[in-house]
Amino acid sequence: MPSRAERATTWAYRLYPLLLLPLLLVLSRDYGNTWDEKIHQIEGEIAIDFWRGIPPPPTPPDNHASHLYGAVFDVICVAAQRVVPGDIWTTRHYVNAFFGWLGILFTGRLAARLFGRGTGLLAMVLLTLAPRYLGELANNAKDIPFAALTVVALYYLAAVEPRPPYLDRPSLLAFTAAAACALDVRAGGLLLLVYLAVALGVAVLRGRETEPRTLGRLALQVVAVSVAVLLLGTTFWPWAFVRPLLGPVLALQNFSHFFWNGSVAFAGRMIRAKALPWDYVPTWLVISTPPVLLLGALLSWARLRRRRQDLWPLVALWSATVFPMVYVTVQHSTLYNGIRHLLFVIPTLVILAAAGWTALLTDRSRWTKGLAAAALAVGLAEPLVFCLRNHPNEVVYFNAFVGGPRGAFGRYDLDYFGNCVLQEVRWADRLARASGVPLVVSGQPPHVVQFDAERFPSTLSSSGPAQGLHHLEIATVWGVGPEMWRAAAGSDVLHWTATSDGAVLCVTAKGPRFADVAGRLKSSGTGAR
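and the corresponding structure tokens:
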């Protein structure tokens, strides 16, 4: 009979995701429009039109790569917008938040399948409090859905056993569906087919299977699943759909050496995305991940030593976490915006951390358990406090290794997506309401300012920066060196959005026509988040 503690853990494991979903949906309204959401909206509409018989536009020029992505997530967003009333961008954020929640749910389920429900519960908590995952959750239309669908696929793949049929039919079908959907988000979903082949190969070796008929049947099964994923994974991907089986492979080849060669801020220098140093990925991982996750992942080795039955799950999780990072480094793949393209490895890292901490929390020594509980509480408090103090700018999290966001300011990319623009637009709305004066806003990125301003149609309108018709100019603060502080403290700056430790993310300055309304504006103060 389960103990009282086990029953409590089971109830918490079940209730946590149920209570979390409505909270995430409500919080998703606080996040702003971002650089990429416009093109994702267009791609969703193109994919729907494709199935209505309307051919997609010609392949975009070489400076645009939207055709190399699947659009299943964007199709879901467009479909939801047609039934959910209100702002289309808010609806997109609801759908994005749901996928982020799905990633948290299946991270917990995968951890529970491998190590028990206590580890599953802790994994869900750790991923919820991973600031960069939470900060991307509502408006990253590629990396969050891909991360969520990847961990869903891994959950069903984890049902593999070292004896025939190795993977039961329901799990195999669910894996196929999840992998196909992941592929219809990013071509990197092909990696899941590699994981399938490796997992089944290891299962065969562990079971010491030598029967030719069994091995042949298993090989055919892998081929059938691969073909199904390649075909189903292009359902809402017009460019790949007309290139059966080969489209996703060609897209992945193109992305391995993506043609974008803009600059990224790294360690106080601007570096071309095609010439990143070898330590770009490990450095970003160390400075943008809460220490409680890094330490927990290292502690998972203690579990490996003490509980030999956990050998294969831990090896698989470490491989799924480390291999993609090593691969993109060795391939000199084009990366930018930190390591958001590798966001899909965070759930497996989280499970490793949860396994490490629970190994100590269930140790026989009371001293060990007590110290572990105290250390875990402190470790969880650090990202929790950051999220509470900096919402909705969790995406600019940096840990103490680099001095927090303020220490990273002028050295690393902060709000690369323009999420903070909405906060400045909201300030402009409050200013307009307090003054009774409709205002025209503009700035950088122009379409982000425009779409955020559309949430406040009664007080704000937008215009292109080059037209010179705006009263207020909003811009994200980006770059390296002292000029970052000068941009944040310019004489024309009226208001700014900053982190709790003072790293300025976005500013509102006087526009070309500010003088037309200056005498009628009632000050709302400067600064603040």
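(Above: one complete record from the training split.) The beta strands are 263-266, 269-272, 439-444, 460-462, 472-476, 493-498, 504-510.
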